[in-house]
Design a protein that fits this description.
This protein has about 120 residues and is of the alpha/beta class. The chain has one domain: FAD/NAD(P)-binding domain (3-Layer(bba) Sandwich). It has a 4-stranded parallel β-sheet. The chain is globular, with a radius of gyration of 15 Å. The N and C termini lie far apart (about 40 Å). The mean pLDDT is about 95. It binds flavin-adenine dinucleotide.
């Protein structure tokens, strides 16, 4: 069974995990994030700062999301090094996580045409 590892636990990362689960019910999925939180909406941060919404109300998915999709979430731990020969990601706490399929989704930003 393939071991899927996703670095990044935001819109892109959880979308990738959901897409994997649609086609593979059996492989293991690990999400790694340097932030210690469940995936949340960055655009809604201003509403939290304005006390219009509680932090838990800007999470993208219900609390059981990771358990329901059988995702191992390693949160609050940065990915520091990728070894493409050994197929491992080394984490900030010294652990190594093996991958068969790796997605690094640590930030996608829309760009204007011609912008580099
Ligand atoms: C304040 C704010 C307001 C915004 N408003 C809008 C808006 O109104 N409309 C809009 O379209 N977009 C908006 N955006 C942009 C939108 O949030 C991003 O386009 C979107 O979040 C990108 O998602 P992503 O999953 O690619 O990356 P991100 O949301 O940036 O997530 C990156 C993930 O990677 C993790 N990560 C990064 N480096 C490491 C590492 N070394 N090891 C482990 N984990 C790592 C982070 O912890 C995070 O989980 C806003 C962004 C901000 C900050």
């Amino acid at each position: 069974m393939p071991e899927y590892v996703i670095v990044g636990n935001s819109a892109g990362g959880i979308g990738a995990a959901e897409a994997i689960r649609q086609v593979d019910q059996h492989g293991s999925i690990t999400i790694i994030s340097d932030e210690p939180y469940a995936a949340y909406s960055r655009p809604a941060i201003s509403e939290v700062l304005a006390h219009e919404r509680a932090p838990e109300h800007i999470e993208y998915r219900p609390r059981d999301f990771y358990r329901r999709l059988r995702i191992q979430a390693i949160l609050g731990t940065p990915a520091e090094h990728i070894d493409f020969t050994a197929h491992t990601v080394r984490l900030g706490d010294g652990r190594s996580v093996h991958w068969d399929r790796l997605a690094v989704i640590t930030h996608i930003s829309p760009r204007s045409r011609g912008e580099r």
